[in-house]
Amino acid sequence: MSDCLIKAFSGCACPPGECAEKPTTPAPVTFVSWRVQAIACLTFGFLAAIVSAAWMETQFKTWDLRNQEHVSWK
Fold first, then answer.
1. Which terms are listed as keywords in the entry (predicted)?
2. What is the pTM of this model?
3. Alpha helices, DSSP H only, in 1-74?
4. Residue 4 CB contacts under 8 Å (≥ 6 apart), including other chains
């Protein structure tokens, strides 16, 4: 059976009676609408901005605390 599928997809002509079955149908292709793509992109971008802002806030807070003795307010 696998030989018949290989021959059917490779385009080789099979002798009569050897490869009678048709090749299996490929999986259906589904297209995601542009609205769903835009919403997903905006959602992931918004979440990435929130996560990066929270990470930067902790980084800057520790940096400020670490370097507060080096700053001169004169």
1. Membrane, Transmembrane, Transmembrane helix
2. 0.47
3. 2-10, 34-67
4. 14, 18, 19, 21
